[in-house]
Amino acid sequence: MTTLISNIATLVTNDPSLGRGPLGLVEDAAVVIDGDRVVWIGTTSQAPATDSHLDAEGRAVLPGFVDSHSHLVFAGDRTAEFNARMEGRAYSAGGIRTTVAATRAATDAELDAAVARYTAEALRQGTTTIETKSGYGLTVADEARALRVAARHTDEVTFLGAHIVPDEYADDPAGYVALVTGAMLDACAPHARWVDVFCERGAFDGDQARAILTAGRDRGLVPRVHANQLGPGPGVQLAVELDAASADHCTHLTDADVDALAGGRTVATLLPGAEFSTRSRYPDARRLLDAGVTVALSTDCNPGSSFTSSMPFCVALAVREMGMTPDEAVHAATAGGAAALRRTDIGRLRPGARADLVLLDAPSHVHLAYRPGVPLVRAVWRAGARVV
Ligand SMILES: [Zn+2]
User: Fold this and answer.
1) What ranges in 189-232 are assigned the alpha helix state H?
2) Domain ranges (residues) in the chain
3) pTM for this one?
4) CATH fold label, 2-64+348-386
5) In angstroms, what is the span from residue 117 Cα to ligand 1's centroid?
6) Residue 30 · residue 47 · CB < 8 Å
7) Residues within the annotated binding site?
């Protein structure tokens, strides 16, 4: 069953061999899908005959967004915390600990419904691949449960037992690291592809993070790191040293951090929803791009610091607040996210790629930044099936 989408005003392929510039832009373009794959890309006038046909009527098409960083397995509500922060009031409730308590108390069905809701919400906004993590269980059973729930909704599942040290280990953080690298890892490794650590002052230091990431790597998980979000620290350079797929946040970087990223293959994943929602300083994407670092954009969707599932919103923020051009932001939200997940089958539209496409109600991908907050996603295909 082949389908032709023709009369595409601007097609983003992210393959410079297929079109203009780093985005491989093709004007008056057409795409043919066969089953779950893209099989042909060219101009409308050259398009082959197919079983079915959709006229894009001068709209833009781009690869489905790849959101490589989210925290969707949670219960509870932190509206009051956000509201207090926006009112400039101190708020003493427990932050992540509030979510840990609510998540532990939730049923499997409640957690499953939450992940289903947020992944569906993301899909409606064009996200065809989403990574998500544990990290609000922080016991052997609760972390393994979170990963089992996540795996029902995505293949990109990350073990984040090292999110924070839970209250019951407050006086024994070394004991908690031993748990994470021991019984918790045993229970979680079969359900995850990635291992992650929140390497930050107040969470896990460089030595603890190294122990956790190498233990995960020894069990076949690939490292990724929450690094340098709240202040400078060892996270970014540790990520590069361990050949982590991604160093996420990268808000506070030294020149040595930037050099390390530029010299390795670790992607810098920027999460501007977090800075937006906490009124914090944004990362300097321009500095990373100018150094030759591969940059990804993701939502960091979580109930505390970035409760958005919208990649278009993050694209707009990246352009307005982080010095990225619209082309760079769209690339980071698609091909960049794919690189952060070490995937070559997604994030690009070329023959052989998975047929993950977004049709915008706009003539150009630039409108994602030019028209912020407007629901421009008109249709979405994932693995060749129209899902929106
Ligand atoms: Zn995160």
Assistant:
1) 206-218
2) 2-64+348-386, 65-341
3) 0.97
4) Urease, subunit C; domain 1 (2.30.40)
5) 19
6) yes
7) 69, 71, 78, 136, 163, 226, 229, 300, 302, 304-305
SS3 of residue 9 by DSSP: strand
Classify strands 267-270 and 246-249 as parallel, antiparallel or unpaired.
parallel
CA of residue 195 to ligand 1 center, whole Å: 12
Asked if the 65-341 domain carries CATH number 3.40.50.1000, the reply is: no
Q: For residue 20, give the 3-state DSSP assignment.
A: strand
List residues forming the annotated binding site for N-formimidoyl-L-glutamate.
136, 302, 304
The CA 174 to ligand 1 mean position distance, Å, reads 22
Give the separation between CA 59 and CA 241, rounded to whole angstroms. Answer: 43
| pLDDT at residue 95 in the model | 87
CA of 298 to the centre of ligand 1 (A): 10
d(CA 258, CA 366): 28
326 alpha carbon to ligand 1 midpoint, in Å?
24
Q: How remote is the CA of residue 301 from the centroid of ligand 1, in Å?
A: 8
pLDDT tens digits along 177-232: 999 999 999 999 999 999 999 999 999 999 999 999 999 999 999 999 999 999 99
CB proximity list for 48: less than 8 A, separation 6 or greater? 4, 32, 40
